[in-house]
Amino acid sequence: MENVKSWKSPRCSLSQVKGVPLLEPTVQNWALVENFRARSDDLLIATYPKAGTTWTQEIVDLILNDGDAEKCRRAPTHKRMPFLELFPVHSLESGVSDLEKMPSPRVIKTHLPIQLVPQSFWDNNCKVIYMARNAKDSVVSYFHFDQMNHIQPDPGPWDQYLHKFMQGQLGWGYWYDHVKGYWREKETKRILYLLYEDMKEVGRERNPRDEVIRVMHFLERSLPDDIIDQIIELTSFSVMKENPMANYSTFPDSLFDRSVSTFMRKGEVGDWQHHFSPEESRLFDEHYEKMMSGTSIPFRTQL
Ligand code: PPS
Of the residues 30, 195, 236, 303, which has the maximum number of CB atoms within 10 A of its CB? Predict the structure, then answer.
């Protein structure tokens, strides 16, 4: 692919595309994203950062490969299912270049809010799986990730970071607009909307099995019960944490500083309670009510 601009500095800065802050290399190469040629059998996995993208990717790959664990260990996640808006930074390749070389059917990762998804996905009526996670756990996970991921802007202290999240100043912009955008469009486009908390709820009236089956039906696949059980086991937090093809351990330490945090950090619902002060929680909830008024997405911050 021609004219890809690569980024050499240690941490990326942010600038905007249509009012949404994105990593500078993405902005510099925006025309390549905007003009990306989707194919009708592409599947897009879309999330706000830290919502459970990698988890969803692993479930999808296993379903598409009939639960065959070996096939799903053919390459690390970002090579099996490239990241659309990632551009050469440190040792990472461009997502668009990888995708152009990839045979169909392709599974593509994006964090773009719906209004920035390239038009060709909609023109081709592509399927989209959207995974959303409650705002409080999302910002905590994002904070730890930004500390260890040397591509991302320096997160600074927690209180300032939380403020930036609420003001939509982190990479990929407002969480509130992101989750609402895909929710609004799910009736008119082929979007399957999943919630991280539903996936985590084990042993109550819902559990990962229901959600894995929803994904399987959306992908128009049918697998026997024992294979579904196997997929649930292979995509549990503890198994994925040990899987080098799903836990980002192939990224060098210079990119992901594991002395600070790991990619597969905790994988829990409610970890925010260890990070928000009571006052931060109160102010966040007040602001949340305003930002989310009129929407009915059934987020839960605890199980
Ligand atoms: S990224 O960088 O945006 O693509 O990250 P993403 O994969 O969306 O989110 C990472 C968080 O998801 C957790 N995770 C899981 N939770 C439960 N079960 C499984 N299998 C699983 N796999 C990943 C991961 O631990 C990150 O959350 P935190 O809260 O930081 O642990």
Answer: 195
